Each structure stands twice: as C-alpha cells, then as structure tokens.
Recover the amino acids of this structure.
C-alpha cells in the first residue's frame, strides 16, 4: 500500500502502558459518540476494557453524558471532545438558549452539502457560542479541558470552526480521512490536503486517519494496521454498530493486527517526536 504522508505532526511521549510498536508507530483505535446514550457508552467501555479500543470521543449535553464522564473517571478512560454541531442535544437539563442555537447550526449544516465548506458570517457568533459551551461543559464533566478534539460527522472541519479558530490551539485535532489515488477525485484529495495543512498550523495531527469499516476484505485492515509499525495511525470506530462491536469485543481485531499492538491511549509515541525533530 503506497500512500502519501503529509507529516506535519508534533508529538508527545507515550507513557507506560501506551504500547508503542518497536519501530516507533502507534495504532490508535478511537470510538466515537461516548455519552450519546447508555447503549453506546456501555459498548465502547466493554471494548476499551478488552483492550480493543484505545480511547473515545465524548459528546456533551447528551442523555448519557454525565454517567459517561463518571465511568471515564472510574475506569481511567482516555476521552477527548466529540464536538457536536449536527445532532440535537438530548440532555434534559441543557440550557434552552444553547439548545436553540445548536439546533440553528444543525439546520444550517444539514441544509445542503456545501454548507460545511462555506463560512457564514451571520452565524459566526452562534458557532462561537455553541463550541465554547461544549468546551466548558467538557471541562466541568472531566475536570480539565480536552487535549484532543474531533467532530460528530467531522464538522470540526467546517469553515466556521476552522476560519473562526474556535478549537484551542495546541490540541490534537482529527485530520481528514486518508485516501489513496483513485479512491477520491484529485480535486477532493487536494482540498482535504489543504485543510489538513491549515489544521496542522494550530494543532497536532496523526499521520493517517481511517475508518474501521468496511471490515471486508480483511486485507484492507491488515494494510492499514501495518502502517502503524512506523507511523501514528488513528482508526475511527462505532461499537454501537453490531458488526464493529463483534469485531472488537470478540478479539478479531487482534488477529487482524497481528504483531501490531493496539495502543492503550491516544498519545503519540516518543519515536514520532524524534522523527519530527529531524
């Protein structure tokens, strides 16, 4: 598998138990939607405790957000913020003004496919308010601000968030999906590369980002996992989906990954720092 790498990451050291590969890479399996509802949270936790998932991305102002934060403290779950601009907040005690503004953004971003690409100056204050509220709520629930941020439906990459510089500088941010030549049009790949370079000016990025599915053919996943021998690879998963849950909780991921270990947390290995300093 030949894939171009735009390696613009800065890295932090992997603590004991982080499971760095011998060649300096890391396979980070991250589960999205922690706290969305009890079923989602419980399935993610089971996969984390089985060692099949490294970390999770937490939603705030959702029906299970409070319980999920308590479980994260109890079990030492590595949680970042899953910025939500597309699914209405479901927590019963969410402040009405915040709920209304978030629904305004949800309506705008779902109105047409190009909405995420176009900066809307009339909604800039609304975006700023809703993003800041989620950052503050994460800090309240987890005791500190997030050191890692991604977006529900990847809307942390929408124009109003990026151009408005609404994400705290220096945090780890999720890059665009990695595609090979032929998987997307040249224009699409160039645009994604442009966004990643812009994102890398203020944030730390992994080398590659893939989604776990499709699970077949297995050779696809084996090629992805093998990249983690030398590079930092994030793989996104949603264990609430039965197929993904069975693959993770049943241990098939370990057989597929072979000698490449699943990282215990979402942290870059020390070798990545050495690579960056060259």
């Amino acid at each position: 598998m030949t894939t171009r790498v735009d390696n613009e990451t800065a890295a932090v050291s992997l603590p004991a138990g982080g499971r760095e590969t011998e060649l300096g890479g890391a396979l980070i399996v991250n589960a999205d939607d922690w706290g969305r509802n009890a079923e989602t949270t419980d399935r993610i936790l089971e996969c984390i405790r089985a060692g099949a998932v490294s970390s999770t991305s937490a939603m705030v102002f959702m029906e299970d957000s409070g319980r999920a934060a308590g479980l994260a403290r109890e079990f030492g779950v590595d949680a970042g913020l899953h910025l939500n601009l597309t699914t209405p907040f479901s927590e019963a005690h969410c402040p009405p003004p915040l709920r209304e503004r978030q629904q305004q953004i949800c309506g705008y971003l779902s109105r047409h496919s190009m909405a995420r690409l176009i900066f809307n100056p009339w909604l800039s204050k609304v975006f700023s308010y809703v993003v800041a509220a989620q950052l503050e709520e994460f800090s309240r629930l987890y005791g500190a601000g997030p050191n890692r941020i991604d977006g529900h439906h990847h809307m942390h990459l929408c124009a109003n968030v990026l151009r408005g510089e609404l994400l705290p500088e220096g945090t780890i941010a999720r890059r665009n999906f990695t595609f090979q030549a032929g998987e997307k049009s040249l224009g699409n790949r160039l645009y994604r590369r442009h966004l990643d370079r812009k994102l890398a000016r203020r944030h730390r990025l992994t080398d590659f980002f893939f989604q776990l599915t499709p699970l077949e053919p297995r050779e696809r996943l084996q090629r992805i996992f093998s990249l983690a021998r030398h590079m930092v690879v994030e793989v996104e998963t949603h264990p609430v989906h039965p197929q993904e849950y069975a693959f993770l909780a049943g241990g098939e991921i370990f057989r597929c990954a072979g000698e490449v270990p699943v990282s215990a947390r979402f942290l870059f290995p020390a070798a990545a720092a050495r690579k960056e300093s060259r």
In short: The chain has ten helices and seven strands. The longest helix spans residues 124-142. The first strand starts at residue 26 and ends at 34.
